[in-house]
Amino acid sequence: MSLSPVSRAALTAVLAAPLGWGVMAAAAAAQTVAAPQDPATLDDVIVTGAPFGISARATTIATTVIDEETLATAPAASLGDLVAGLPGMRSTDFAPGASRPVIRGLSGPRVQVLTNGIGLIDASSVSPDHQVATDPAEANRIEIVRGPATLAYGGTAIGGVVNVLDNRIPTEMPDGVDGLVSAQTSSVDDGWSASGRATFGLGPLAINIDGVKKEADDYDIPAPAISQRLADAEGIARGPGGTQPNSFSELESWGVGASWIGSRGFLGASYKDLSSTYGTVAEPDVFIQLEQTREDVRGELRFDGGPFRKLTGSYGHADYTHTEFEGPGNPGTVFQSDGQEARVDLVQQNRNGWNGAVGVQALSRTFEAIGAEAFVPSSDIEEAGIYTVQRLDRAGWGLEGGLRYDRRTVTATPLSGGSEIERDFGNWSGSAAAFIRPSSNLFLGLSLAHNERAPSEVELFADGLHVATGVYERGDVTLDNETVNTLEGTLHYTAGRFRGDLHVYASKYDGFIDERDTGAVFVDGGESFPIFQFVQTDAEFRGFEAEGEYDLWTSGDRSLSLEGAADFVDAETDLGPAARIPPYSVTGRLNWTSTPFDASLEVRHVGEQDELAAGELGTDGYTMVNLSGSWRPFADKAVTLFAEGHNLTDEEAREHVSFLKDIAPLPGRNLRVGVSYRF
Predict the structure, then answer these.
(1) 446-503 tens-digit pLDDT
(2) Distance of alpha carbon 110 from alpha carbon 17, whole angstroms
(3) Backbone angles phi, psi at 547, to 5 degrees
(4) DSSP assignment, residue 435?
(5) Reported pTM
């Protein structure tokens, strides 16, 4: 894989910095000691989008954190399905094997999925039937940034970021052996999963090993697979229902990593192997096999003085192959991605409330699509960017802001033939925010962001039948940058027993890249498919996310609380409503917590969606009732037995943002039980 001079220089700088500083740190350290705890590792502090670490309730950035304790008892779901239902979050719900996060109605190339701050280097953004090459069971923490996050991560984060953080490269020396093992089973799909990880010391080295294994059959559905709306529109029978055809999934992942840890930093490397097989749902006889191997290097050097507090560096290389089988032993289209990404961050010293960081990032990736159903050509993608984020925090007020420039080059030969085409894009992004604290329990913030995104290889060069979505897709090589200006208001409030958060936003797009039905059809084997074209138009997105918690009763270690959440997004373009925009949702939850036992009763209502793009069918509203509990039978609380009843009323529910919503409802009633052990 060849690199441009810019990418080569950036990658060299990123690799050389942590390695060189790591050697210097090794020479300087007289003995190996546990690294002092960085403020950014505390539970209420996020690092995604703010390398210097910042409290989630003291910033204008809209964030959600899923911590290790929650992940230990979470469903054995894909990343998209796990985060669906959080404020502002949905899933593409392309069957259990391939569901990607949707943030504020945006998905695909506008939502960046990361592992430890580095891209996955997979092909999950190319098509909704492509699996994300990471599993939540690998993580000990997941951070979500809702809204523009391009300052730290580039244009593919224009809608938001989901950052999966693991401990495969340890950052501090464990006290003995630290780890977790977990196992669970579910009734709706006869599924089971098991996972484990352990970190231990070996002289100056910290070693980590981890693994995940899970299997699930076709899941049960509470209604026929075909929706009533599709049956009425097409004049077809709905079918018997019972189970969702071709919705099985299997996944196996293992990894190993090691770090040298000294008094002023660490330097480590890791290796991961992931393999997965799953049904596509969209086609009854087609299944997908995915393989990815990945190598990562990470390092950190802390300074005793000077303008900078620490230097961090990360590098990742991944080799990814996605093969679509049209029946056993009959491989069809193959998607391959081989690439590397690296970044370096210099984090400033805190000087009288002023924190900040400067960073560089580079990516080089080769993408290949091989086979009769390849709807997008092979392409080479190179990116390089430089950015800074800054924050000034005074007693009653503060400022946040940043600036980024990145350059993206996409090269491909169109499927229709002709000479190779190279498109270069330069993107500027910036943000400015101000906040005040009128009192110790109130935070008010207002931010303005300008973000730019280069079109993806699919939006530029697609030209073929995309069976997974049931349409013929055409790109446009003349597409320009997509730009958006976002105004967002933030409120964090705590008073007595109440705690609440509110984010209200409005985004105005110039050159919004949208995929629209042309009205023409493509005929293949006697079957007709609508032709969709990527076009640019103006668009406006508006919405909010609200969360609240009220302590109803507390006595000692026992507490009863009431939680509520709601979200809403409205999206209009000059061509009409945007497609696959989620309807509003409202969630209420009654929680009981105590030392030995926790329980939660949740009622979640998702509204009807009748604001539709041309050719799009609506979805009915639904209400789900869920009950969960966990029991820690021993005094040290290391062992947790957990159980969940999901969709207890066996409600028919369809995710509007999914391409499969009219042929695949969400799973029916499910009983899930499991055990976890933390040591």
Answers:
(1) 999 999 999 999 999 999 988 777 889 999 999 999 999 999 999 999 999 999 999 9
(2) 30
(3) -135, 145
(4) E
(5) 0.91
